[in-house]
Write a structure and sequence with these properties.
Layout (H helix, E strand, L loop, with lengths): L15 H5 L4 H14 L5 E2 L11 H12 L12 H15 L8 E4 L1 H13 L5 E6 L4 H8 L3 E6 L10 H7 L4 E7 L11 H13 L4 E5 L20 H6 E6 L12 E4 L2 H14 L8 H9 L3 H22 L14 E2 L20 H12 L1 E2 L1 E2 L9 E4 L4 H16 L3
Parallel strand pairs: 1-10, 3-4, 3-5, 5-6, 6-7
Antiparallel strand pairs: 2-8, 7-8, 9-12, 11-12
Helix pairs in contact: 3-11, 4-11, 5-6, 5-10, 7-8, 12-14
């Protein structure tokens, strides 16, 4: 009989790249909540950055039909012509961005589209200018691609948005990339068209800068500003911007893993070559669902947007009414990002001092069973992120618990 191998396995050294990588804290919190719920713990999750709605039925049907009609083989690596053309038509129709299928690659989520772009364009030592607070994945991906990160600190008084002079002051000899993510994860705020145009003027004065415009929350806008896609502000910017988007947030399709990038054809070709060596095409039977999502009925998207608007308003009102919290009004995406600094230094009922937003989130989860994401990995160590992608009822219940817990701090 064969002897089974018993742990501990002999240690295999990890690459310096893997050693240095910080795992995604947003995914970690989401996984933790799911484990707790599966174990029967009554936790209210404000952690997950994903819609709580089901994917609209007609989109699900498109994929079911595709699998039943035998769409189960390899497909073209950057996506089928139909799917890429549907994305190009969408960019034309919705954003006035005159592109065609050659400008589009479809990837395993917006996340992998971003990674492909970093890998295709960034050289060792190139600098990414990153307005903070930022989504946790940008610095990790830039680092994987050999780059360095220079943070541009957004100020709470300005809705965390950076100004043209702050951008200008940050640009140095190694600066090559700038991320614009509006509506923003984690802050829920967004740039007005005029604010974006003012930033664009600075970018136009620096011909070496490439902009990564992460438009993933573009359909979830409910504040005073209309959405403008950065690449459409000036013809030159169309050639110097890589635009990222996908179906995850707009169509409640996070698990399907469908994202895309829009850029100059030679950039798309390089990303295609990388994708061909990394993942090949996205899941074959998702291709027709892309066309259905983008070109079929859009009423579900509008219903979800209205629900997020209503939930965001409720969460904002309640957070502002809590002692010690200060919050910017959410205008897009589905996040509120209150400042908790007035509560740091207090002690919870167990006597533990809350020294950081991590301590705050841990105690809130353990004692009140409310999950939030601490701000440290978003570059905002005195904030917490609450996602309102959950029902009004759960929002009320979670905020009741959080308020009672805050009142119990000493
Ligand atoms: N950009 C931002 C700002 C996000 O919050 C997310 C959410 N995960 C993504 C990109 C990528 O989403 P996905 O990979 O699901 O398309
Ligand atoms: N983007 C979402 C979030 O910030 C989903 C998790 C992730 O991919 O980071 O929570």
């Amino acid at each position: 009989m064969r002897e089974s191998i018993s742990a501990p396995f002999p240690a295999i050294g990890l690459s310096a790249r893997a050693e240095a990588l910080k795992p995604s804290s947003t995914l970690a919190v989401t996984a933790k909540i799911k484990t707790m719920v599966a174990a029967g713990v009554d936790v209210i999750g404000f952690g997950a950055g994903e819609p709580d709605f089901d994917t609209p039925a007609h989109i699900r049907q498109a994929a079911i039909l595709a699998i039943e009609s035998g769409r189960t083989r390899y497909e073209p690596t950057p996506g089928t012509m139909e799917a890429r053309s549907a994305v190009a038509r969408y960019m034309n129709r919705r954003h006035g961005f005159d592109v065609d299928a050659r400008n589009v690659i479809i990837s395993v989520g917006g996340k992998h589209a971003l990674y492909l772009a970093f890998m295709a364009l960034m050289n060792d030592g190139d600098e990414l200018l990153l307005p903070a607070p930022y989504w946790v994945t940008y610095p990790a991906q830039a680092q994987l691609a050999g780059g360095t990160v220079r943070i541009i600190q957004g100020r709470v008084e300005n809705g965390f948005k950076i100004t043209p002079s702050e951008l200008e002051a940050a640009i140095g000899p190694r600066s090559r990339f700038l991320v614009i993510n509006s509506p923003n994860n984690p802050t829920g705020t967004m740039y007005s068209p005029d604010e974006l145009r003012a930033l664009a003027e600075v970018v136009l004065r620096h011909p070496r800068l490439i902009v990564f415009a992460d438009d993933i929350y573009e359909r979830l806008v409910y504040g005073p500003h209309p959405f403008v896609s950065f690449a459409t502000i000036h013809p030159e910017l169309a050639t110097r911007t890589v635009t990222f988007n996908g179906l995850s947030k707009s169509y409640a399709m996070t698990g399907w893993r469908i994202g895309f990038a829009v850029a100059a054809p030679h950039v798309i070709k390089a990303m295609d070559a990388l994708q061909g060596q990394m993942t090949s095409n996205i899941t074959s039977f998702n291709m027709p669902a892309i066309v259905t999502a983008l070109e079929g009925p859009q009423d579900d998207v509008e219903k979800m947007r209205e629900a997020f608007a209503c939930r965001g308003a409720r969460m904002y009102e309640r957070l502002c009414a809590m002692p010690g919290l200060a919050c910017a009004r959410p205008e897009g995406a589905f996040y509120a990002f209150p400042d908790i600094s007035a509560l740091l230094g207090r002690r919870d009922e167990m006597g533990t001092e809350l020294r950081s937003s991590s301590d705050f989130a841990t105690s809130l989860l353990e004692q009140a069973r409310v999950a939030v994401v601490p701000g440290e990995d978003f570059g905002a160590p005195t904030h917490i992120r609450l996602s309102f992608a959950t029902s009004l009822e759960r929002i009320n219940e979670g905020l009741d618990r959080m308020e009672a817990w805050i009142l119990s701090l000493r």
